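Throughout our pipeline, every protein is held as a single compact record rather than as scattered files. Such a record has a labelled line for the sequence and another for the backbone structure tokens. The remainder of this section carries one protein's record, kept here as part of the documentation:
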Amino acid sequence: MTLNLIAEAAVSLLLVLGGLFAFVGSLGMLQFKDFFMRLHSPTKGTTLGIGCVLIASMIYFSVTQREPHIQELLITLFLFITAPVTGHMLAKTGLHMHLRFITGTRGSLPELMDEDVGQSRFARPARPKPPGGLKTRREQLLKSRGR
């Protein structure tokens, strides 16, 4: 077996695995029911998928151009370092905002310390109410249309 044949097999395998991981990560975004479960899809599946594709690219260009290409390896390492940190920051933000989560999942409820959870819900601006009731607003709309 030649080196090119082994490299082509490795690149093909990594591309197929990368596509599968990315697909499963994307599918998880649709299937999971709450914010905290959805964090797993991009941080786990999609990260592995992109990592496999980048390593396949590194192998392919290193073999075809006969010189080492490490740019893809640096991108993969950067991705593996930043994705879990981003997921952790998003999870802490969800805890501070008191986002709802499904309690019917397996496992125990998280044991949170006071400094991990915010004291009140995220402040949202109140919606302005139209003057009068719903009937008054309907009458104003009909009057402005000339009816």
